[in-house]
Amino acid sequence: MLTLPELKTLLASPQHIVITTHHKPDGDAMGSSLGLYGYLIQKGHHVKVITPTDYPAFLHWMPNNGDVIIFTEQHEEAARLVAEASVIFCLDFNTLSRINELGELVRAASAKKIMIDHHLEPEDFDDYRCWDINACAAAQLVYEFIVNQLQDGELINKDVASCLYTGIMTDSGSFRFSSATAEVYRIAANLIDLGADQAKIHELVYDNSSENRLRFLGYCLSNKLEVLRDYNTAIISVTKEELAQYNSITGDTEGVVNYALSINGIRLAALIVERTDKVKLSVRSTGVFPANEICKKYFNGGGHRNAAGGASEKPLNDVVSEFKSILEDYKEQLLAG
């Protein structure tokens, strides 16, 4: 493992750096990646952000988004950059399976690998780790990495601040989750002082839906929402055909599960979506109920206590039935005050 002084020495001279993040990147994944990118290019490094897949259009406004390489669309160039890199930053994920086929290229690369993440149970593939499960976002950890560890806070300009603010805002549920501590608010305030326009960022992320996305949301809430009051649980399941009916694109299902969780008395909510290759689950909970335990134990996934995900090779109806059958084992927890 690298020590912090060794890492500082490494970054003191220009390096060929790749920054990557998890598949189907969200606001934190892209905010932390492009925020770190904006910092590193000021230091004179040769930097590329490579995402395993595409990501929502409502994140394309972010500074330096035009320089992002999407692995599934530019496979050869991405593979070359990973092979030639001297440093690879792995942001907002802690196991290489989270970056799909890109993971084995990163594993085989000779570059020093730096993990910046806040998820449970990290895989041992990195050479330096900035990891804290209590952080509200990877973007918070990137901020602390730049300011506290590298002591380069003066290089957080407007572009960097805007990206990091976006990551913190989205992963903290617009600062409403318990992970949004007083320290997180202080960081956010500093990012605003440094140029992040919080009102504009909120508008660009949350008030930037297509007509199709809003109609899809309305359809889900009107026709697909199932409330299981015996378990304080709500489920929304969506077929491939329903996605196609509304011309759904990447990002259109993001946040849908939160509407189910917002119902009075609901403690557990799941969005279960039939994709081309498998069925994907987004699971959310309130209080101390372990959404991540369900995803890890039954659906090959994991995540945070109140926000987790999983997947299954089974047909959609079977996955929905399996999810419902699991609830009996958790009934006491789900019905507890």
**Which structural class fits the helix and strand makeup?**
alpha/beta
Indicate the percent of residues in helices.
Answer: 40-55%
Report strand order across the widest sheet. 3-2-1-4-5-6
Instruction: From the 3D structure, determine the CATH topology of the largest domain.
Output: inorganic pyrophosphatase (n-terminal core)
CATH architecture title of the largest domain: Alpha-Beta Complex
**Count of DSSP H/I helices:** 14
Radius of gyration: 20 Å
Beta-strand share of residues: 15-25%
In total, the number of domains comes to 2
Beta strands, count = 12
The average pLDDT value, as a whole number, equals 96
Low-confidence stretches: none
Largest sheet: 6 strands, parallel
| CATH homolog superfamily of the largest domain | inorganic pyrophosphatase (n-terminal core)
CATH top level label of the largest domain: Alpha Beta
Order of helices and strands: HEHEEHEHEEHHHHHEEHHEEHEEHH
**Roughly how many Å apart are the termini?**
45 Å
The shape is globular
Domain DHHA1: 248-328
Pfam families: DHH, DHHA1
GO molecular function, one term: nucleic acid binding
Protein name: Phosphoesterase RecJ domain-containing protein
Structure description:
The protein has 337 residues and is of the alpha/beta class. The chain folds into two domains: 4-206, Alpha-Beta Complex (inorganic pyrophosphatase (n-terminal core)); 211-335, Roll (Diaminopimelate Epimerase, Chain A, domain 1), CATH 3.10.310.30. The chain is 41% helix and 18% strand. It is built from 14 helices and twelve strands. It has helices at 4-11, 27-42, 75-84, 102-108, 138-149, 158-171, 182-193, 198-206, 211-224, 240-245, 256-261, 291-298, 316-326, 331-335, and strands at 16-21, 46-51, 69-70, 87-91, 112-117, 128-131, 225-228, 233-238, 268-274, 279-285, 302-303, 307-312. The strands form two sheets. Strands 3-2-1-4-5-6 form a six-stranded parallel β-sheet, with helices on both faces. A six-stranded mixed β-sheet has the order 7-8-9-10-12-11. A hairpin with a 4-residue loop joins strand 9 and strand 10. Helix 6 packs antiparallel against helix 7 and helix 6 crosses helix 8. The longest helix has 16 residues, at 27-42. It is globular and about 60 Å long. It starts with a helix and ends with a helix. The mean pLDDT is 96.
